[in-house]
Write a structure and sequence with these properties.
9 strands; 6 helices
Length: about 200
């Protein structure tokens, strides 16, 4: 099952991008095939099923919120419906979620943020919005060049009302597609306070 790539925060091309709010949760994956529909589920690095104590509820959340609409969109486009598989990537989170930790007693949600198609790779930002922008996806909070000033603005909290953690910027197309992330100082300070021993790993 295709894993989501690590986003390099040091990648900072001064090129046009769309920057999306970064939801503070855990990456979960849902694999689709024409024969089986959505049939395989995973976190960033392991598979799970509905019996999973923490992530099992994500399956029904995704099925209820996205499965029918996403399947219709895939089947509408020949190059996608004939793919061996399509993987949807979503963020799983609740009101108290932080840095991959979740309160199992809370109600959670999933939000679709990327889609990968076999032999096509992860769709670029424009493709993703064109196909799935009518569904619940992270808010676009910036459309412009991914320059140092924008990154500094994010770090200092200019967009913190839209995203406490920060942003994910996406630009380019095809093999020249790139992604980068920028966290806010407020989120990083909270991380350092709560998880000092694993700060470098989680930041």
């Amino acid at each position: 099952m295709k894993e989501y790539p690590t986003i390099n925060s040091k990648c900072a091309p001064n090129l046009p991008c769309l920057a999306f709010q970064k939801l503070d949760g855990s990456n979960v994956r849902f694999e689709w095939s024409k024969k089986n529909g959505f049939y395989k589920f995973g976190t960033r690095n392991r598979l799970f099923d509905a019996s999973d104590e923490m992530f099992g509820s994500a399956i029904k959340l995704f099925q209820d919120k996205y499965a029918d609409d996403v399947s219709k969109i895939i089947l509408k486009h020949k190059q996608y419906r004939e793919a061996q598989y399509v993987v949807c990537f979503a963020e799983f989170f609740g009101p108290s979620s932080f840095a991959g930790w979740h309160d199992a007693t809370e109600t959670h949600d999933v939000v679709l943020f990327d889609v990968a198609v076999h032999k096509h790779g992860i769709l670029d930002a424009k493709q993703f919005i064109d196909l799935f922008g009518g569904l619940h996806i992270p808010e676009i909070i910036y459309d412009g060049n991914y320059g140092q000033q924008f990154r500094q603005d994010v770090y200092e909290g200019k967009y913190i009302d839209k995203s406490f953690e920060g942003i994910v910027a996406k630009g380019g197309t095809g093999h020249k597609m790139w992604m980068s992330k920028q966290k806010t100082k407020a989120w990083l300070d909270k991380l350092k306070e709560k998880h000092p021993d694993s700060f470098d790993e989680l930041a």
